[in-house]
Design goal:
about 90 residues; mainly beta; Jelly Rolls; six-stranded antiparallel β-sheet; 8 strands; about 0% helix; about 55% strand
Length: about 90
Amino acid sequence: MGNDFSIGIVNFGAGARNKMRIHTSDQVLFVTIGKGIIVTDAAEEVITTGDVVHVSAGEKHWHGATADSAFSPIALTAKGSRTTQVED
């Protein structure tokens, strides 16, 4: 997506999630299908189709599907952003 952004769609089956992570740039999630969860050190929130979520650079977080729903967000980050997993 031009020289400034990376964009991709991520598909989670019911109950699946990624590991706790940190990005070097802000990340924006656009929920396209289903019901998911976004978890940070400060909060846990259920998100659904149509929601837009902002995660600040350096903020530890994970996201994934609820136990009863698949979940697909479009993830937008800055081009060259690096991701570090902070969970085994």
